[in-house]
Amino acid sequence: MSYNFRHFNARIGVVFQFQADVERLLSWTRPSHTLSFLAVYSFVCLDPYLLPALPMVLLVLAVLVPSFVARHPAPPKGTLSSEQSMGYSAKGPPLAPATTVRPAKELSKDFFRNMRDLQNSMGDFSHAHDKIVELLVPVTNFSDEALSSTVFLFLCGGAVAMTLASHVVPWRLLFLAGGWALVVSGHPAVKPLLAAQHQQHVQPREERAKTWLDRWIADDVILDSAPETREVEIFELQRMSDDAWRRPARRGDGGGGGGGEWEPWLFSPSPYDPLSQPRIAGERPRGSRFFEDVLPPHGWEWSEKKWALDLWSRDWVEERIITGVEVETEGERWVYDIYDDGEDLRTGVVEEQHQQEKSEAGGKLPKARHHPPPSWEEGEDSSERRGRWRRRRWVRLVKRRAAPATVLS
């Protein structure tokens, strides 16, 4: 870092020299230079087609001509040629070496001058940055939502107005008058007059304008006071116990076999229906074991104290286009899987008989025949035997969590 800084500081002098020249030009140190600049600026404003030629003219007048004059200097005063008033002549071979831009030597006067100017520029940038943040950020970061909303409305209205009317605005005259006004305001004789006029006419009206703006914001800008609310869902999954699943089905059983014992499994954001991707891939459902472990989404908080059971099971089944299930329209509103003989094979459960077939077939398990499960509209007398999973939907309202008024970035 020290090496790069030394090299940078030795070469930054040309930038500070250009900055000093611009300051002298705009501060009317040499009025002839400032008026010449205003003349060129006026020509460009009145005829913008001259703008592409401006960089080339500047390159010729500011770089090439001084470099040529440096190699072909005029005779010094007091010589015979100057006494005879022969004038400057560029004829003949070069009389002086070409000028080059060399970096300042370390520990030289120019090196320390560049370091001083660099420190001053860093301080000026820091002050300008803090001033811009102080003036602009509170207006635009919605810490005061009414004020920022007003700025938003004015900017949107101005953008629409300029889109429709920009072609009728005399931009050339505006830039011409604005440039002249800006440069003339920097004249030493004009600055005191502008300061006196500002103190006499503008300052007394600033407080009045601010009062009118605050009153308009309070009367016409309406903000939402209530936070946004949404409904979240969670699915309670239950699984048929292994003993009940392997017992033969009896007419009137509520589950896959005798007794139909259901084991609470978990609360999942997915219904884990027969045709869901995790189910087809043989993956276990993911979720929380208990209701208390279910958390609201990030940036939200609970708006209600308890979960509510969704009594319209058929609606969310139809919205998700779920097939292979039986919907319970009364009671506890469970949605059951329709029994499928190939379910165990699809989920990776291999019975002893299939293990024997695997050994007889030379270590390869024959592929199970996959029968597409019927939809819940097609089920007939499905109460005798159901699938191994059932689920029901719970809902709860959440609201946006209020954030601090100001966040430091």
UniProtKB/TrEMBL annotation:
<feature type="compositionally biased region" description="Basic and acidic residues">
    <location>
        <begin position="350"/>
        <end position="361"/>
    </location>
</feature>
<feature type="transmembrane region" description="Helical">
    <location>
        <begin position="49"/>
        <end position="70"/>
    </location>
</feature>
<protein>
    <submittedName>
        <fullName>Peroxisome size and maintenance regulator, variant 2</fullName>
    </submittedName>
</protein>
<dbReference type="Pfam" id="PF06398">
    <property type="entry name" value="Pex24p"/>
</dbReference>
<keyword id="KW-0472">Membrane</keyword>
<feature type="transmembrane region" description="Helical">
    <location>
        <begin position="146"/>
        <end position="165"/>
    </location>
</feature>
<feature type="region of interest" description="Disordered">
    <location>
        <begin position="77"/>
        <end position="101"/>
    </location>
</feature>
<dbReference type="GO" id="GO:0007031">
    <property type="term" value="P:peroxisome organization"/>
</dbReference>
<feature type="region of interest" description="Disordered">
    <location>
        <begin position="350"/>
        <end position="388"/>
    </location>
</feature>
<feature type="domain" description="TECPR1-like DysF">
    <location>
        <begin position="1"/>
        <end position="396"/>
    </location>
</feature>
<feature type="region of interest" description="Disordered">
    <location>
        <begin position="246"/>
        <end position="267"/>
    </location>
</feature>
<dbReference type="GO" id="GO:0005778">
    <property type="term" value="C:peroxisomal membrane"/>
</dbReference>
<dbReference type="InterPro" id="IPR052816">
    <property type="entry name" value="Peroxisomal_Membrane_PEX28-32"/>
</dbReference>
<dbReference type="InterPro" id="IPR010482">
    <property type="entry name" value="TECPR1-like_DysF"/>
</dbReference>
<keyword id="KW-0812">Transmembrane</keyword>
<keyword id="KW-1133">Transmembrane helix</keyword>
